[in-house]
Input
Amino acid sequence: GAGVSQSPSNKVTEKGKDVELRCDPISGHTALYWYRQSLGQGLEFLIYFQGNSAPDKSGLPSDRFSAERTGGSVSTLTIQRTQQEDSAVYLCASRLGPSYEQYFGPGTRLTVT
Amino acid sequence: AQTVTQSQPEMSVQEAETVTLSCTYDTSESDYYLFWYKQPPSRQMILVIRQEAYKQQNATENRFSVNFQKAAKSFSLKISDSQLGDAAMYFCAYRNYGGSQGNLIFGKGTKLSVKP
Output
């Protein structure tokens, strides 16, 4: 079956603009994660969605970051007023259940100029 | 808080030889999962191998095996008969066993080069 997909693959934006990154998880996977991969910080957890429960936003670095998951499927990560330090690869992963693996998408490389 | 440390930023191995990547972690939990992920230049994170902490037997997946030392909090990855396609970034990761959240905590990664 299809894996996790993310769009766009690459995004270049100007400082101060808003961006939206999209994640399509594997069908039937109830858990969805966003991670950020940057040179300085490595791989960091950002946010977690489980079914219809309130998301765990404990990893979001600032209030400029937000995410939603519509209908328990597609998720959008929004970064407002982008800064150069937001430049990174944003990875999405989904999981079937608590004892199952996380499957990752190919990521979106965000460059803020 | 749990932490994962990979002390080798870069490693190199000759094709067909064996290489071991190191990983140590810190946790106060007794039950947890450990993983090795491979990330080629395509950026796609691929699960290589998984180990449950309650299992004493080391996990193996074809040419990949781990040396899990729970008391020492060490989790190294051995790649046997290295192939050119093994060249990638390798990340060690930790996940708590209990609860439903289960986000991964990653090390900084080891870049593996394979020489023909």
Remarks:
- The mean pLDDT of chain A is 93.
- The beta strands of chain A are 5-7, 10-13, 19-24, 31-38, 42-50, 65-69, 75-79, 88-95, 102-104, 108-112.
